[in-house]
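Input:
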Amino acid sequence: MTVVDLLPATLRRELDRLRFEVKRVPPGGRRAERSSRQRGTGLEFVDFRGYVPGDDFRALDWHAYVKHNRLVLKQYEEQQDLPVYVLLDASASMQSSSKHAFTQQLAAAFGYLGLANEDRVAVFPFAEAPLPPLRPLIGRNVINRLIDYLSRSRGGQQTNLVRALDDLAQRAKRRGIVVLLSDFFAPGDLAPVHAALRRLRHDVAVVLVTDQAEVYSLPDGDLLLEDCETGETVAVTLTPLVRAEFVASYREFVEELAAFCRRSGIAFQQAALGDSVGRVVGEVVRQVGR
Amino acid sequence: MTFEHLTAAQLAGALAAFTGALAALQFLRVHRRRVRVSSVRLWRSLAEREKPRILWQRWRDALSFATLLGIGSLLLCALAGPMRSDEGQRRRALVLVIDTGYSMGAREGAGVTRLDLARREAARLLSTLRPDDRVAIIAAGFENRVLVSLSAHHPRLTESLRQLELSEAPGHLSEAIALAKSVADGQGRAEIVVISDRPRSRFDRNDSVRQVAVGRRSDNAAITGLAVTQPTVGNPRARVEVTVTNAGEATLRGRLRLVMGERAEAAIPVELSPRESRTYAAEVAVPRSAKLALTLDTDDALPTDNRAVVQLIRPRSLRVRLAANAAAVVRALTVDPDVVLVNNNDCDVLVTDRSEALSHPTLFVGPTPGLVAESGTVSGTLKLSGDHPALAGFDFKDVSLSGATSWRGQALATVQGSPVLVAGDRDGHRFLLPGWQLADEATGFPQRAQFVAFIARAIRWLAAWPRERSVVATVGERLTVEFMLPAEVTLNLPNGDTEQLGAVGQRFVFVPRQVGIHTFATRAETGYVSAIRQSAEAADITPASESRGSQPTSTPTTRPLWHWLALGALVLLLVEWWAFLKRVTV
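Output:
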């Protein structure tokens, strides 16, 4: 799989116009183009401070010395990179061919968005446990490594969102943006997931990947539905009426998740198969920047 | 309830097959298709919402299967022609009269005879009965036999069907029906069923019983007559006249073969139009006693009546030595075609007027003292005494004797109660002793035609002549067999069996039951009865045209039930449809 496959030129042009808008990036990063709280050797003047032995003479403001007879230093804003963590659900439920390709494209798009803006992009796939992550990448020229990683990544079985979020919290110490790509089909209640999302000290964006064909491609009649992750089965006699009931039930599920995100200040975007990837990424960028 | 079109076994088999097929289809129907989905969490919650209906759903498939099974069973039963009896609760008695006459041996297929078909029909009838119904089986052959009296023991009934044997004469169906009625008498709800190939009109004019007809073929050719003429003197050849009947509807072509012992005597071409009988004649040399087999070479339904066998004998003359001067006696002997007068002791009968030690069977022509005791003289009209074979059928009432000697002995004729003609046995030889001169013209006896017959009968009785006799009869025909004297008779049957008849009288009635030669043997005589199969009328084996007879009067009224069963199936179909509609929910 190549960049052209996942990121066609039209999509790249859309993404080139986007950028995660944050006021200040946390300190500790690599010098880049984003404003940070750290004082350094940037171009943007911030303040003066008195000289103390050991300071760089090149930072002395000689005009101020002439005028006030005091040694003062000009302080400049240090510009650093923004960490972008793509948390990628690689469980069995996300492995259906269409869904998998769509999710890969979304992950690639978010990665491309970060790399194009000189941000630090890391990918953390997970299933029942965290999978080997992609070491942070920086710069547009390493986009091929991201694409290569996504192409070779393998999935797992069950979804364990809580563990994945906790693991990310431990690994990603520097505050950044977390983009969670998942269908949220995890066993058990979603309350622990909500708690884990709240615990994250990052700007979080939840992208709910949905595939309507999963419902509408099911044949009518007596079916034994098997959970592809847990193997659990449910006997269903599927009819148009039942199908409509299921769609309504799923809509409730989505709205519940969206409501939680709104309450928790988490960006939420539903990405249905067939949606424009550029539009989905743009919506996420727009929500994160608010 | 009974079924008209299927037996209980057939219906059970059909139901079993239907149940198996339906079970397989039901398995396919209720077998849910397995589909992998991303998650069943929402589906499960959806199913949880429908929980109150789970119990119904659990039984829905079973109910659906039960209703489908009910529908199919009812339709199958409806197709089987169910009949409800008004007296369905009472157990039934069935008397099966199975024709075992020779025509039931007609071939209806490869190795299948009408009797086999009758067995199948009987087995089919047995299978329709309830376990407590009782059945009697009567074999209607030459003799009617109750094989099983009313019994509900099916193995025994089945075994008796297996043991049915063809008789070699027509079955006496009318008598068998009478026997069946006596068996069924007092049984209340009883039914008599006749399984036969014969048209009902021949045995049951009152339609009082139900007939199950068997057989389809009607082509049959048969030897229906056989006559043998053998002159006693001169030409040692026998003239054989064979009647062949074509009872079928097609022209018959074949050959009639005559085989003496192992030597082919003649092969006569036979061509007969439909329903035609024709007699063919042939002469065969008879050097000695031998069996003559006649075979009609055709391919018809009943080949067993294409054969006949007859015993030919070598007749010889009756040799009489005349040692008395009695002109009337001589005249009577010379007109007898079987008699040859000889002058030596190689004779069969001695005719004399002298008393001497008996060296041959002897006819005394006048009173000869010393042979038996005298009791005086008598005069009067001669009267026959008893029924001696030597004088059977004679009438001497117009013969008047005067001064005839009266004897003490076995009286053949008397005058005023005193024996004047006696028969006896001395030194191992028979004799006849009159108390008057037989040739005495004064009695008027010698002038009568009766006198010639008397002499002929007397010398034949004395010589026990002929020593061999042969007659041809039809199986089942009543014959009167006569012997010169009461004797121990050994009867050899065609199938090789031997019967000792003990001391029988001088005549007895004999009915041949088997085709072939029956041999009667006494110490002095041998008689052959050559029994052939049948008559021209009986050769017609055209089966009954109607397949079933009318309903017997003793059978309770039955009503068809198929429409009720079909209605039941429709109701169940609605139930099943409703159950199917219930499937729209989870």
